[in-house]
Amino acid sequence: MSNLLSVVSIGVGATIVMDLWGLVRKRLLGMPPLDYALVGRWVGHMTHGKFRHDRIATASPVPGERVLGWVVHYLTGVVFAAALVWIGGSEWLSHPTLMPALTFGLATVLVPFLVMQPAMGAGIAASRTPNPTSARLQSLITHAVFGLGLWATGCMTSYFG
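Below the sequence we write its predicted structure tokens.
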């Protein structure tokens, strides 16, 4: 399997694992999964030069925002997988190990904390949400699960590749 196909497989696989966690979290804890339509709305408004919102939920909807949000979500997973391989080296593709994937997965939480949440009106690290500590904890757990997904799909990819 080529490195590019491996990276795409790992990124998509890890994102699926993260999304499955969202469904489990909803069932066990009653917490709704993330609404990727809002991500699509945010990205859609960027095409008109608007990068920051006071509250993305009250911004005007954009056509196809749900599909756009899901596409951006999965492309982000692939980009993160590529970054892991770039930082860790292509050797990781042949012999995936847990700690680099888990550490990198946790590090990816910086993107929502420092970019997405502030730009969508939630403040740095969800500081403007009703319960910032809970939001931060859930983000950290979700990104740890993404890291586990990177490792698990990396193992499957190396086994089948």
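The chain is about 70% helix and 0% strand.
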